[in-house]
Predict the structure.
Amino acid sequence: MSQRNVLLQVARRGGSFLSLVRKIWQHPKGRVGLIMVGCLALVAILAPVLAPYDPYDVTQRAAKGLRPSWEHPLGTTITTGQDILSMLIYGSRVSLAIGLTTGVALAVLGALMGVMAGYIGGPVDTLIMRIVDILLVIPTLPLIIVLTNLLGRSYFVIVLVFVAFGWTGLARVIRSLVLVLKNSNYVKAAELAGASRWYIMTKHILPGTSHLIIMNTTLTCAGIMVAEAGLSFLGLGDPTAISWGKMLAEAQGGGALLFGAWWWILAPGAGIFLAVFSFMRIGIVMEEVFNPRMKASSSIHKLFKHLNHSYLDEVFRSMEDDGGAESTEKPDPAEPSTTEGGHD
Amino acid sequence: MKRSYVIKRILYALFIFIVVLTLNFFIPRLGVRDPAERYYPPQGAMSDIEYEIIKQFTREQYGFDVSTFQQYIRYVRGLMRLDLGTSLRPGSPRVVELIGQRLPWTLVLSVTTLIISLIIGLLFGTLAAWKRGRWQDTLLLNASTISVALPSFFIALMLSFYLGFELELFPAYTNPNMVAEFDWSWNAIQVVFNNAALPIMSMALGGIVGYSQSTRNSVIAVTNEDFVITARAKGLSHTTVLYKHVLRNALLPLATSIGMSISGLIGGAIIIERVFNWQGMGTLFLEANSTNDYPLMMGIMLFLSAFAILANLVTELFYAILDPRVTVGDKR
Amino acid sequence: MLTRRGWLGVCSALLAATIVVLSGCQRIEYPCRTDPTNTLYVGVVQASFPSVFMPWLSRDGIAPTVASMLYSTLFSYDDETGEFSPSLARRWYYVDAEGKPIVTDSGSIDFDRLETHGVKTLTNPQTGKTERYLTVRVELDPRARWSDGRPVTADDVYYTLDIARNNYLSNHAGALAWTADLLHLYSSSGKLQLQGIFTYDRGAADCGYQIDEAERDHVVYLHVRGVLGAVTSLFTTVLILPQHLWEPIVSRESQLNSRNPDARMQHLYQNPVGCGPYVLDAEASGPALIVLRRNDLYHMTREDSSPLYAVETIRLILYQELNVAIYAVMQGHIDMLDAGLSPNYVRLFDGRDDLFVSVAEGTYTQTLVFNVNPVASAQTPMRSLLANTDVRRAIALAIDTEMLIRLVANGAAAPMSAGLIRESLTDFYNPSADILRGEHSERLQRANDLLDRILPEKDEQGYRLLDGERVSFSILGHPGEIELISFLEIQLQRIGIGIRYQAKGSSPETTYLWTSRFDMTIQGVILSLANVDIMLNAHFAALGRTSNYGRLVAPDLAAAIEEMRSTLNLHRKYELLRDLQPMIAKLYYKVPLYSPQIVSIARTDRYTGYQVVPGATVFNTTNLQQIRRLDSSGRTASSPSGSPGSPVGIVAAADKE
C-alpha cells in the first residue's frame, strides 16, 4: 500500500512545466543539459546565420577534400567540396526536427493508448496489448528498409514507422501507472459523481501521468535521434537533405578513411553525441527531480526503474546490438505486487 | 510450472506468428497493381508485346496468376514445409538456403558480443553496486549515458579508421574470402576472429555498459531488501550474503533481459555488418534490398520475427520457471 | 549461488574464450602478396556474385563479363572500324541466289551487288507480310573445342540460334540474346513455322546452299533480315552453347532460362562448358570468388602457337564496397580493380609508382532528356512548354558543359557533340552536328533572346512566368546525380528557368519513364557502330517501353533512321548516319552534358604492360592478352608457354587448313 501512496504523490507532484524547468536548472547536471539543448536549438534555428557557407548552394563549393584551415575550419568534403562545418550546422536541423516531431507524436499516441488501455480496461485493453505484442515482434529496422524500398526514401516514412512502432513502450508504462491511479480516491469520487470517462481521463488521469510522459519524451527524443542517424547512414532518408547520419555515410563512401580525413567522420559523430547527450542528461535529471525520496526506498526504486527504462529497449533494440541490456524486468510489467521481496 | 500456462503461452505465440506472417504476405503487395512488373522490371529494348508475354510467364512462375487468397494459402503451406520462398537471384537459390549460409556468421558476431558483454558487464556491475557512490559507480553512470549517445556505427567507423587503416592491427574491412576459405582449421578460425575483432568491439561497448547498469541497479535494489538486511543482521559474512542472497535474486531479472537481447542477436547487427562488410544476415538483407529481391527480403523478415517470437516465448517460460508467481493471476 | 568449483569453471571458460578470441589478433598475409604463379587478382565491386553462368540468364553485374570469357561468339567486333574478327567462326559472306559469295576481288563485301543479287523475299507466316532477307554463309573454325574436348560444330550453332528463337523451350532467353533479325520463327507453342538456319543435315541442300562433305560440320547458312545491321548482333552478341550438353536437358518443364532449374540443369548452370579463352574452376569458386583458368583447348593462339591470353589464372574477388576495394589495391591484396572510379580518387594515387592509373575515354554520354510528348493524362502546362523546340534550344544553349566537366566530373570527362556520336568514330562523325559549342556568354545571350520572345514576363527573382506561374521543371534522377542537377539549377537560373530535383521512385510502374510522369531526366546514351541500328530506333523513333522516354515523334527523323537501317549499301549507310546527326542535334531532345572518362587502377609490382583501352577499365581483353608477369626480382618472367615479349599481334592464323 505504501508504495502506491508514494506513486500517487509522484503523480500528483504538482507544479507547472515552468517549475519543472526551474527545478532542473537548479540541479547542476540539469543546468548543463538545458544549456546544451538551448544551444542546439539556437544552432538549428539560426543555421543560415551561423554557417559560414551555404552547403545547399552549389556556387559556394570550394576545392574538394581540403584539410581544415582558417577558411574551412573543418575542411571540405572529398565528394562535393562542401564546407563540413556548415553541413554540421545545418545537419542539426534534421536531427532536431525529427527527434522532436517523433518524440511528441510518440508521446501523444503512447499516452493515449496507455490511458485507454489502463482506464477503460476490458476488451480495449486486451486489443491494445495484443497489438503491442505483435508490433514488438516485427524487427523495426528491416521493416523500415522494406517500406523505404516500396514507398520511396523520405523522412516521412521513417517518422511514420517510428511512431507506428514506438508507442508501445510508453503505452505500457502509462498503462501500469493508470492502473494504479484508477483506484485512487479522487478518481473514484469523480466516477461516483457521474463524470464521463473522457472527462476523467483528460482531467484526472492524464495530468497524473504528465511528468512521466514528459520525462519519457525527452529520453525518446534522444533515442530517436540516434536511430535516425543510423537510418540516414544506411541511406534511407531524404537524399537532398543534410543530416549527420548522411554525412557519416558520405564520409565512409567518399573514402574519408582512405584519404585520412578523420575530421569528416568525427564532426557529425560529435554532433550526434552532443545532441543526444544533452537530451539524456535532462531526462535523467528529471527523474531525480521527481523522486528525490525514491532513492531511499529500494523496491520503489526498482519499480520506477523498470517503469522508465523498459521501453527504451524497444526503441534501441533494432539499432543497437545488445539492446536488451537496459531493462531489468520482463518488458511486460505485471502489477506492482509481483515485485516485492525476494526468495531464498 | 502449470501446464495450462505453457499451453496458453504457446498458443498465444502461434497467434502472433499468424498475424505477422499475414502482414508479411501483404507488405510487398503494397501499392502495386501488378507484382509481375516488380519482379521482372522491363528491359530497355523490349517491345510492349514481348513484355506482356514475359509478364505472363513471370506471373505463372511466381504464382501471381491465381487469386490473392490462393496465393496466401500456398504461402502458408510453403511455410509449413519450412519453405520461405525462392530468391530472385540468378540460379534461384532458396531463401532458407541463403539464410542458412549467412546465419552462422552473424551468430559468430552476436554470440561472442553477448558473452563478452555479459561477463564483463556482470563483473563491473557488481563492482559498481558494491562500491555505490564511489568513483566506479559514477564512472558507470557516465559511461552508460555516453554509450547510448554515441551510435555504435560511429564507434565502428572510428575503430576501423584507427585500428584498421592507421595502425593496421585488424583488417579495416572483412576479407571477402573468409567465408569461402573457411575449413575449420585453426588458421581459418584465427582469420575469422581477426576479422571479427573490430565489429565485436564496436558492439560490445554498448552491451557491456548496458549489462553493467542493469546488474548494478538490480544488485542495489536487492541489497536493500528486508531479507538481505536480515541476513546481514544475522552476522553472515559479506561474501556469503553476496553470493547466496543478493546475486541469486539480482540475476533473475537479468536473465529475462538476456532473453530479450537474444531476439536482437540476428537482426540487430545490420549497420555494423554494413560498416565492416561482414557477410552475415544484415548484409544479406541489404543486398536483397538493393536488388529488389522481395522474396528474400520478406523471407528474412519473417525469419527474424519468428525468431523474436520464439525468443520471447522461451524467455517467458524460463522466467516462469524461476519465478512461478507469474503463472498465477495472469490478468491481461 | 555458485560454489567455488562453479567459479573455477566460469573462469576457465572465460580464459578459453579469451584465448580463442585473442588468437585473432595477428597480421594476416594476403595470398596475392605471396603468390608466385601467373595469377591475376582482380577486385570486382558488386552486391553479390552470380552462382550460375548461363550466359542468357542474367545481364547484371559481372555475369556478362564472365560469360563472355567462358563462351565465344561467332565473331568479335571492332566498334571503331566496324570490322569483324574471327572468334568461333573464321569467315562469313553474303551469298546470292546461286549460292555464290557476294564479295569483291579483294574479299570484302560487294555492296553494289548486294542490293541487286543478294536480296530475296519471303512471306512471314506470323505477320503475313512480305519481308526482304539476305542469306549469309558462316564458316566455323574447325579447331574450336568445347572445354570438355568435343569439337564445336555447326550443330551447336544451329541449336543455339534455334532455341533462342523458341520461347516455348527457352523462356525468352532470346530476348537477352538479340536474335530478332534472324528469320527463324517459332510459334508460341513451340512449332517451327519458318526455318532460317541451315546446316548440312538440316535442309541446306534443299535450299540450294552449297556445303561440301568435308566441311559439313563447319558451315552454317542463315537467313537474316535484309538490313546491314542484322548480322552484327547475331555474330557478336550471341554466345554459342554446346548442343550435346543442353539438348538432353532442356524441355518444356525445364526451360533454358528457367528460374526453377532441376538438378541436372542446375549442375550445368554451375559448371559451364564453353569454348572461350577461360574455363570456370567451379570447385575453387565460391560466393565471393570466381576462379577462371586459361583454357588449353582454346583454338585461337598467337603466330608462334603460344597462348593468346598471357594470364593463366584469374581470381575475381568480390568487394561490396568501392573504398574497400581501392584500399585492397593500394595495400597489394589484389592486382587490379574492375571498376570505374570517381575522379575524386585520382589525388589519392599521386606519387605512387606502384600503381597504374588508367584514364580511358568513355563511351557513354550523360544527356538531359526532355519529355516532349507526354501522354494525355500526364500533360501539364509546363510540359507543353517543352514541346516548343526553341525552349529546348534555349535550355541546351544555357548549359555550360565546361563548368560541369570541371566541377562535377573533376575534369575527367569530355564534351560530346549534339549529334551524340563520338569524334573518335572518324568514319561517320559529323562535325556540323556540334552546334552547342561556342563561347558560353554568347550562347547564354542567345538563349535569353530566344526565351524573351516566348516567355517575356519575369518575377522579382528573375524567373520567367507562364500565365503568372514561375516556370519550373523537375529533373528526375537518382541520388548520385544530385550534384549535377544542382549545377544545372544554377545554370538555368541565368535564363530564368527554375529546376528542382525529383527522386526516381522505387519501381518503374509507379513512376516516370514509361508513364510520362516527368519533365526532364538524365539518361546515359551509348551510340556506336555496333548498336546504331537498334539504338537510334529505340532512342528516337519507337514508342512504348523503349529508351525514347520523352516519346519523341519526328517523322522525318524516323524515316531517315529507317532508311539508314535498311540500306544495303555501307557507304550510303555511313552517309545517312552522318546526315542523321545534325537532325538529331537540331531537335534538342537529348542534350549532351558530358562523357565521363573511365578511371581505374592496377598495381605494377606483379604485372606490367597495361594499356589504356577506350571505354574499358584495366580489366579488358587487351590487357589480359598482353600483360607480363614479373618475377620477384622485378624482371619479366619468361612465361612457361611461349616466348616472352611476343608482339601484340593477336589474330590467329586464319587459313591454316
Summary: Residues 293-344 of chain A have pLDDT under 50 and may be disordered. DSSP finds 15 helices and no strands in chain A. Chain A touches chain B through 74 residues (CB under 8 Å). The two ends of chain A are 24 Å apart (CA to CA).
